[in-house]
UniProtKB/TrEMBL annotation:
CDD domains: CBS_like. PANTHER family: CYSTATHIONINE BETA-SYNTHASE. Pfam families: PALP. The lineage of its organism: Bacteria, Pseudomonadati, Bacteroidota, Sphingobacteriia, Sphingobacteriales. Its cofactor is pyridoxal 5'-phosphate. Residues 8-307 form the Tryptophan synthase beta chain-like PALP domain. Gene3D superfamilies: 3.40.50.1100. InterPro entries: Cys_Synth/Cystath_Beta-Synth (IPR050214), P-phosphate_BS (IPR001216), TrpB-like_PALP (IPR001926), TrpB-like_PALP_sf (IPR036052). The keyword Aminoacyl-tRNA synthetase does not apply. This is Cysteine synthase family protein. Keywords: Pyridoxal phosphate. PROSITE patterns: CYS_SYNTHASE (PS00901). It comes from the Bacteria.
């Protein structure tokens, strides 16, 4: 068995699905949390990182010692950095100015080279993480741009691993799947698989106010006027990624940053669990929209928590009365 196969079979994936008493009681249904921060890189992005790296190596697109290059808000970059290092490669990660201090520190510890860019507005913007990552890969030998926004392995990773896990963990009784939408890989891969099992399962995405994906999902066109979207790290886009499959998603709700910050702290106060930024956005959607759609007592709702709140102390918990407690409980689950 190859080293990368050992990684995925023993360490990446097979994360727990936890019944959440607090949210189930609040919304009068059965709510479960898919806790992806149990992966080695403490995020769901380890899954597509491994699939993209395995695919590139199998197709001989990179030689040992070369650079895997990615544009990332941090989590995919960290997954790529950790796996690349273990397999004898290097990583160069292009992050935007909004990347949290904690993620940058983790990337450096993982041995990644980092470049901080002005934004992550897509390949059409010369100052974006995507454009600069692609440009670097195109002008340097033995480099491979994993390009999570357009790499089919992003969707495939969640179709082949995340979704079957959820299906098995709920014994096929899941009724709703709710996740933040960034590259679109998670919700597209999970949504495709679940709807193949039972078409009536609801697949709902969450994005920040001002992001364009909900408009695209509804009208299949881009909005004529775009605005800056709320800064909720990891989700929201002003372009449609190639890894976004509209056919796999029923609806996308929008939440604002203030609601998300408030919900992160409220959930921590109630449960002692620090959520990641996009995880808090998913919880915020329950108050803003989803609960109004009247869950049934028998429903089984799975919320996707892609990473841990320890990566966002400076953004979600800094300055609060709970910051020192949160810092000491950095591995809480």
């Amino acid at each position: 068995m190859k080293k990368d196969d050992i990684l995925i079979s023993k360490f990446i994936g097979n994360t727990p699905l936890r019944y959440c008493d607090a949210l189930s009681t609040r919304y009068h249904t059965n709510i479960f949390i898919k806790e992806e921060f149990h992966n080695p890189g403490m995020s769901a992005k380890d899954r597509p990182a491994l699939f993209m790296i395995k695919d590139a190596i199998a197709k001989k697109k990179i030689k040992p010692g070369g650079f895997f290059v990615e544009a990332s808000s941090g989590n995919t970059g960290l997954g790529i950095s950790l796996i690349a290092k273990k397999l004898g490669y290097r990583a160069k990660i292009f992050v935007s100015q909004s990347c949290s201090e904690e993620k940058i520190e983790l990337l450096l510890k993982a041995g990644a080279e980092i470049e901080i860019c002005e934004n992550s507005n897509g390949l059409h913007d010369f100052n974006s993480t995507q454009f600069r990552a692609q440009s670097f890969a195109a002008t340097h030998p033995n480099t491979y741009f994993t390009n999570q926004y357009y790499n089919t392995q992003n969707i495939r990773a969640h179709y082949k691993t995340t979704a079957p896990e959820i299906w098995e963990q709920t014994a096929g009784t899941i009724t709703h799947f709710i996740a933040g939408v960034g590259t679109g890989g998670t919700i597209s891969g999970v949504g495709r698989f679940l709807k193949e099992q039972r078409s009536g399962i609801k697949v709902w995405g969450i994005e920040p106010n001002g992001s364009i994906l909900s408009h695209f999902l509804r009208y299949r066109t881009l909005p004529t006027n775009t605005v800056s979207f709320d800064s909720i790290e990891g989700i929201g886009r002003n372009f449609v990624p190639g890894s976004f499959d509209a056919a796999a998603i029923d609806h996308i709700f929008q939440v604002n940053c203030q609601e998300t910050r408030h919900m992160a702290m409220e959930y921590y106060t109630q449960t002692g669990i620090m959520t990641g930024f996009s995880s808090a956005a998913v919880i915020a959607s329950l108050d803003s929209y989803v609960s109004k759609m009247c869950f049934k007592l028998t429903d089984k709702v799975v919320l996707f928590f892609p990473d841990h709140g320890s990566r966002y102390i400076s953004k979600l918990y800094k300055g609060s009365a709970h910051q020192s407690i949160a810092s000491s409980n950095i591995t809480s689950s």
